[in-house]
Design goal:
The complex is a heterodimer of chains A (90) and B (303). Chain A contains two helices and three strands; from the N terminus they run ββαβα. Chain B contains 13 helices and two strands, in the order ααααααααααββααα. Chain B has a two-stranded antiparallel ribbon with strand order 1-2. The chains are: A alpha+beta (90), B mainly alpha (303).
């Protein structure tokens, strides 16, 4: 049986968020099982199911190297900049 | 092994599925999560037998929802276990062949309707006390599954308490039925926290790995302290003449737990061990045609 990863949109205006996984033979059954398993209390208004094998993930081994380039660029954040006194709406 | 694992544990952060981890950590988690999942699945049986006999449509709908939740909890947990590199089918085989355990509490019978109340109040109550700290367990997928489970267990406990409260304020016969159920479930529910701290085999390492956050005796005491005032409001008594408030400790003292009973039931000699396992195997075998039909349908759609 295929392993499916389940993503649920809790309500309109929010993104789908990973909820967990389940086993199903095909996508339609996966959706129905996902409804029964992850939205018994109206936790969602939309569900995505994705075969787990189709997901490409970054490797935890290269965690540091992979994300390092963003580490030394504090100027990407507004708090990096000092404003002269009295400036408003900026 | 890099120091990353220990650094994450020390920083009180979470280990995630593809991180490096000691083999013993992985094995401990698989054993614990699988046992937990099996308990949810076997735990459907004592209550499932009352669905057709519930005294009202409302109670029947509640019980159905609760048993369905238990199936769901089992599946959340199998899903968490699978992130550690085992397959659900292997875990089910291990259960069916008796190589993995489930909680001993489900080997006790449910002869009366009041048992549905006592299970909710005492068994689910004990489970919640055990499980709330697991929401902060060091393994991410297990912790996340526990957050969902704890939210849902709270309904299980309350419906049980309300059921018992209704019975204990009903006819004398109903009240007696409620008291009898509490008398039978009280001690086994205390045993759910596991052996006393001195005799617990897995505790120290699990604490060091932050899988476990509190000792068995600590959680058991927390549970007893909550139960006593709740029992008073129910108008029912707890079957322990040794229960009394200890001003100095700030806790209730309690009588001796009969650990020989715990060991006997754990070893397979409880009232219903054989029946629970036989029913589980049969349910699995009886479901084979559904799995086969789904596979055949998917195969046909693909071609």
């Amino acid at each position: 049986m295929t392993l499916w990863e389940v993503f649920v949109r809790p309500r309109r205006g929010l993104s789908h968020v990973h909820a967990g996984s389940l086993h199903a033979e095909d996508a339609q059954l996966a959706l129905r099982h996902a409804r029964d398993l992850y939205t018994r209390r109206q936790e969602g208004v939309s569900i995505w199911v994705v075969p787990a094998g189709e997901i490409t993930a970054s490797s935890p081994d290269e965690k540091d190297a992979f994300f390092d380039p963003a580490g030394d660029k504090p100027y990407r954040h507004p708090t990096f900049y000092e404003l002269p006194e009295g400036v408003r709406h900026l | 092994m890099s120091t990353m694992f220990q650094d994450v544990i020390d920083a009180d952060e979470r280990i995630e599925p593809r991180d490096e981890m000691p083999e013993a950590y992985r094995k401990t988690l698989i054993r614990q999560i699988a046992q937990h999942a099996h308990s949810e699945i076997i735990g459907m049986q004592p209550e499932g037998s009352w669905i057709t006999r519930a005294p009202s449509l409302k109670r029947k709908a509640i019980l159905l929802a609760k048993v369905q939740d238990e199936a769901g909890h089992g599946l959340y947990l199998y899903s968490a276990a699978e992130t550690l590199g085992v397959d659900r089918a292997e875990l089910l085989d291990a259960l069916h062949e008796g190589r993995q355990r489930y909680s001993s509490i489900f080997n006790y019978p449910t002869p009366t309707w009041a048992d549905m109340g006592a299970i909710g109040w005492l068994v689910d109550g004990a489970a919640i006390v055990n499980q709330v700290p697991l929401c902060r367990c060091s393994y991410g997928p297990y912790a996340r599954a526990m957050v969902r489970i704890c939210k849902e267990e709270s309904f299980h406990q309350r419906q049980g308490y309300e059921l018992l409260h209704t019975l204990s304020h009903g006819t004398p016969a109903q009240k007696a039925m409620a008291q009898d159920a509490v008398d039978r479930w009280y001690w086994p529910s205390l045993m759910m926290f596991g052996p006393p701290d001195g005799e617990s085999t897995h505790s120290a390492q699990s604490m060091a790995w932050k899988i476990k956050r509190h000792s068995n005796d600590e959680l058991r005491q927390r549970f007893i302290d909550m139960l006593v005032p709740q029992a008073e409001i129910l108008g029912l008594t707890l079957p322990d003449p040794g229960l009394r408030w200890n001003e100095e400790r700030g806790h209730y003292d309690h009588g001796e737990i009969d650990w020989s009973e715990f060991k006997r039931v754990l070893a397979g000699d409880g009232p219903l061990n054989a029946q629970r396992m036989a029913h589980r195997r049969k349910a699995h075998e009886d479901g084979a045609w559904v799995r086969e039909a789904a596979a055949a349908y998917a195969e046909r759609e693909r071609s």
